Amino acid sequence: MSEQNPYQAPQKASELQGYQEIVTLSRRGRLGRLRYFVYLAVANFITGVGVFLGGSTKEEFDLFARQGIDIPVMIFLILMLVAAITCLVIGIILIYVTVAKRLQDFNIHGAFGIAWLVVGILLPPIGMILSLMMGILPGSKGENKFGLPPYPNSTEIKVTGALIIIVMVLSVIGFLGLVLSMIMGAQYEFNGFMR
To answer: Does residue 27 fall inside a structural domain?
Structure first.
């Protein structure tokens, strides 16, 4: 018969079931493959919004620098720039937390997520390959030094993950179709020129 300490804090229901509770904005814990893809897509979307706002703001600043300054418009542009920087910072933090948790599912310390971010920023093709590998390879089974296995995916995560994967596949097909049409168009122009 096992003895329980009456002064021990009660365990959470998820720990009683053999799974670790997922805390979204904490680096603690582990993250499964599908949830990794979903969280990374959301973080990349937020970062993309920041890049879009920042690029739009730069164009508008350049335009008003040539034409003169309108104070209400300048205040709006400054607010857009603040929103862009905020989105970028939040997106990068979310990407780091997501990568750190996924690395911990492989029993690798999450601090290596910073190296992953640097490689992803400086060498985007390698960063994409690393992201894909982290999403495809299974993590360690059972408990590891970073805790219990991640909680199983909910229906919402499964549907969102399936939609994200479908959009990714369609994007790759569209990109390949664009490249192929450019190659075929260039070949057609070349053949027409040579006649």
So the answer is: yes
